[in-house]
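Final report, Chapter 2: Outcomes

The project's central promise was a pipeline that accepts a single protein chain and returns its three-dimensional structure in a standardized token representation, suitable for archiving and comparison. That pipeline is now operational. To close this chapter, we reproduce one record exactly as it appears in the project archive, with the input sequence first and the structure output second.
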Amino acid sequence: MDGAPSRVLHIRKLPGEVTETEVIALGLPFGKVTNILMLKGKNQAFLELATEEAAITMVNYYSAVTPHLRNQPIYIQYSNHKELKTDNTLNQRAQAVLQAVTAVQATNAPISGTTVSESAVTPAQSPVLRIIIDNMYYPVTLDVLHQIFSKFGAVLKIITFTKNNQFQALLQYGDPVNAQQAKLALDGQNIYNACCTLRIDFSKLVNLNVKYNNDKSRDYTRPDLPSGDGQPALDPAIAAAFAKETSLLAVPGALSPLAIPNAAAAAAAAAAGRVGMPGVSAGGNTVLLVSNLNEEMVTPQSLFTLFGVYGDVQRVKILYNKKDSALIQMADGNQSQLAMSHLNGQKMYGKIIRVTLSKHQTVQLPREGLDDQGLTKDFGNSPLHRFKKPGSKNFQNIFPPSATLHLSNIPPSVAEEDLRTLFANTGGTVKAFKFFKEITRWHFFRCQQ
């Protein structure tokens, strides 16, 4: 990021499919963006900010935090140009996007001190954002949300809660324009590398009623509020209004890690108990109830293998009198939440399984000498646990189920045809295969049942 300061910034190494909106969003937290020029063929862009001070702030910020677009690092430096002059006829798409962003930035806020009823405010003018976090591999605290969203204006109130097995939040700004800018810049981005994706929409609510200041809710304008430990964070009136909201959130497009400590650090912090997922702490409910299993096919070992992708399975118990259901005990509450969010509704042996938190705190082993027909198994000392080592890269390699498998530790004597035959024998069809020949052999292939 060398060169003399300029309000025009040169951005390099852009992903080929990146859009003008994503590039503009890079500059929004630092000030008004006044011009943009995309050089798609060179994977580069020029971004002009309103002031040189804003550009300096942006460059200094991204000197300490590597910016990403679509999970790819990009590079930002001062341009030799002091002003960006573009031919609008050749740059029509970029100019249209910029005008749309400018229109959002220029939206008039309600006059201070006036009372505005909910019916008089359209969702696009609301200062309250509705936030859902997908792919929540690591805990996201109220303080993390405040850190992220404060870059776009004063955050007045935040309420966090779990609804439909998803971590959600309502966040209120003092100015609707701040909410619009935050949504434009953050919707679809990642808090940590490749996980904790923000899905943001405007709420129909215009004011949040926060009763308690604790780890689930906070009113930053009322430091005198009680902690109300053990009380629900979501006010019943807000919950009722929230349930009526029918707007659909857009599917995330570009994913860009935000300026938050990396995932490995987050995982280490969670393991150390310094942060916790609201509703499910590391010491919370670790037992899952899995139902609608194919009782003719399922075994404790197969459940251990599947759920072991998302955490270290300690015990599995298929219910004796209801063999289409099982209890699975994970190593901690975060892992049980993670497994539930990824596997609920997935198909296993031809049946769509349901995964919820169990009322049980542990899975009991059968009494000594009692034959339970192999329905219960203790995996506490299994050498196949993936997450035993704190800060392991395995914490960063957790993804939703897909048709593409990644295999490792393949013996040198095993050939491609051996693997194709192995997986074909399970009833699947191998559609594609790629062999990575390195010191440690890795295989990548696509399988379809």
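Archive annotation: The chain is about 20% helix and 25% strand.
This record, like all others produced under the grant, will remain available to the consortium after the project formally closes.
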